[in-house]
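User: Fold this; tokens only.

Assistant: Input:
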Amino acid sequence: MMWKTTVLLLFLPHLLSSTGTENIKQLNQSEINVEFSDAPVKSQKPTGAVKGWDSCSIPCDITVKLLRDEKHSICGQLQQSLLAFGRSTRKLMRDVMEEQQRALDILSSQVTELMTKVQTLSSEVQRSNTEMYSIKPVQSHGRDCSDIKDNLMSVVPKIPSGIYIVHPENMDSSFEVFCEMDYMGGGWTVIQRRTDGLTDFKRPWADYSDGFGNLAGEHWLGLKKVFHLVNQKETRFQLHIALVSSDDITSYASYDDFHVDSETQFFSIHLGRYAGSAGDAFRGYEQEQNQDTAPFSASDVDNDGCNPFCSIDNRTVESCSTIQNNTGWWFNQCGLANLNGSPEDAEQNLWQKMHILWDTWRQNGIPHTIKSVTMKIRRIATNN
């Protein structure tokens, strides 16, 4: 009975659509009796069965209709899903774009605020610089390192060496110098130092006049500054030259009176009495080697006395600066001293590259190879 009921239910829609109510009545009165035995049927086929019965136990048009309905249902669901996905995607993109726009607006506001602050700070720095240089003069520590030492001795138990600001009495402005406060009583103003060969002393006149290098290391203070330091009223200065050889032997040369002339006289040097262990290379052994009172020379300002040339060691020399790698010094037909010297050969070792010349300091008749030198000046007592 269960299989009969199932078959009738499956056929019922088709019968309703094709035969109508009348057919139903006839169906009720007919002798159709489709039963399926609970027992298995062995290869029984109805006589005169319709072709295709094996592959379609349910009428094919019903199967097709069911599949079509299912396809339409699935397509409808898919279309709804796609529409919902599209709406959610558009909303997500809109939300992301709005969030990005908000972030850009915040960043733009921050950039504008930062630019305003930078402009304000720039204006304040410019105003501060203008006030500092045009209104407030730089406070100096003294007229020179000797003056600084004398001023600080009563208030500081130990005065450190380092960079100080000096203002010589005959100058309109201040400048920095390195003061050695722990060498032979202190109060020394360093005017030249060479220690490592890293600073190039191959320089024109303008550099030697104004100064170059690093005050805490290798440097040349500048002839203009030296002139103002040593030409202050009622002052005399001692020049001290400290030398160190490549094998760490030390020596010195000292002059009890030192000053230079103005630039119009090419900063000619003037030296007092010599004392020391390195020999008086400034004056040499012969008059033509004497550099005392000689004007300063550089590669582009030649005052070395070789007019038109000099004969040195059977060589013809037109410029002492040129043969000593365009360095500047108080040359006099070259002479025996050039603490700014530098050789032409760039392949030499570190100390030979510097080629500091103080020819009177010798060992076994051979000049020492000098690796470092310091030129410094200090006030000395006057008779006034």
